[in-house]
Amino acid sequence: xxxxxxxxxxxxxxxxxxxDPRPGLRRARESVxxxxxxxxxxxxxxxxxxxxxxxxxxxxxxxxAVSSLGLVRDAxxxxxxxxxxxxxxxxxxxxxxxxxxxxxxxxxxIVLALVLLVARTISSQPAFAIAAAVQGLIVMLFPTxxxxAVxxxxxxxxxxxxxxxxxxxxxxxxxxxxLLREARALFASAERAVTASAExxxxxxxxxxxxxxxxxxxxxxxxxxxQESLESATAVARISPFLRxxxxxxxxxxxxxxxxxxxxxxxxxxxxxxxxxxxxGRRRPIAADxxxxxxxxxxxxGQSLEDISLEPAARDLLRPIAAHLDPARMLPDASLxxxxxxxxxxxxxVDLLTAAGMPAAEARDAVPRx
Length: 370
Prior knowledge:
The protein is mainly alpha-helical. It has two domains: 6-170, no CATH class; 175-365, Up-down Bundle (Methane Monooxygenase Hydroxylase, Chain G, domain 1). The chain has helices at residues 13-17, 23-30, 32-52, 59-69, 77-101, 107-122, 126-141, 147-170, 175-203, 206-217, 219-239, 247-277, 285-304, 310-323, 327-330, 336-355, 360-365. The longest helix is centred in the last third of the chain and has 31 residues, at 247-277. The protein is elongated and about 85 Å long.
């Protein structure tokens, strides 16, 4: 099993918090869809177990529902199911120990050790074992009397898990809004990286160039955040009738993301060469203009995620820039290092054209052969 619980998610919160004067309010606002989903799932699970099944205090119904969904972006059914499996494992092992040797202070370490070892055998993810151990702990701390009561708790856990899985389909989170936030964060940061590198070239200023390189190096975290949200949204859209109409949009974002992942890597190469080149303090206005033009095209690609009509405009802007990326013709009297910088922009231009909707082969043909 993999990706079992919310603890495994990496969220670039600190990157955005530095730019947001009120990060707490932003986080609360962005969490509203997830909070609604969790509240409905936990309430429904508790109500079903209490009023339909007649269980007096179905604690596990609510706790399993809340823990399975969590406040993470990765709310795909598979992750929810794996988390439910981990928690049910803890419940069943604990109930078995209680039935065999009873409950008390000396049984508690036995249960925890057994649950953790079995869970680690089943899954390599630490969160899976912790989820199982927490539920086992709840069983031991709230002992019940009678066979019927003991059997009720695993059933409550199943009710909570079923409610969580159902909510991912019936009450999906605001996946489009979350995806667009992640995409905007990536494109905004990438644009700042390009701007800083281009300013460094235009001014012959190593400090600006190094700032662009540093910003480019931090883009991977934003790429992974968008990728994780997109994978979660795609998984939910496959089974949710309410997200069926979003499938084409998700597929387009997948294409843009794949191209931007490559573009980010090539942007780091451009940033390194720019930082090295301006160490002599000389200005490179032509290379700066070319890089700034690529940055404007990238900005249009980001805007096209919300307005698809901007994709052709991005291609029209990038195509002539790509057509002039012949180092020998563009900078015939320049140093080998400056020509090497222009050469590094060629794959970046191809990646951006692909992100703008151009077929990969056509994008490669858009740059001149050298």
